[in-house]
Amino acid sequence: MVSHTHIRDDGFSLTELLVVLTLMGVLFAVSYGGILATYKGREVSDRQAYFASEISTPLSVSEKILTQAISIESPGDYTITVLTDRDNDNVVERHTFTADAQGRFTERVWLTDQFRNNTSLLDSNIWSTSNVNVAEGQELFYYYDSADQRITNMASVPADARYVILNISVEYDEDIFGDSRTVLFRNR
To answer: How is the chain split into domains, by residue range?
Structure first.
């Protein structure tokens, strides 16, 4: 005897469609959460890279040079010139760090002769292009004497300064961020 089975193909039931739609909604929500987390992580990463290039690097470079200063020349609120012999070869280098109104924090390095006259420009670096110290009226350099008293008379800085607080501020996404570092003049 042969039995015939008839298969009905009427489509999906309403319950089946609701289950599938609910599962797809959960899947899309989880996917969106993952995409959003990735995007936020990229924003944090971009901000950290920006801070490293615009704040941390200038602070580190400046600290390394200023710590080795054997003499201070032309101090100011937004500029400092120091003499170093950073490679101990009896050839003195002149370093000038400056923050300008265009948002640059720069360093220029000259080799000098035995009379401490500039002989050749050895290096010129732009360490930051978003510096806002001048625009915000925030001093870049704060000079202190051995009694931890702030020196405001720039003519006294070359003789009396024992350390400087370097304060760098930058703008990122219309917000001001900054960091500072205390640098001891150990060779003075």
So the answer is: 58-184
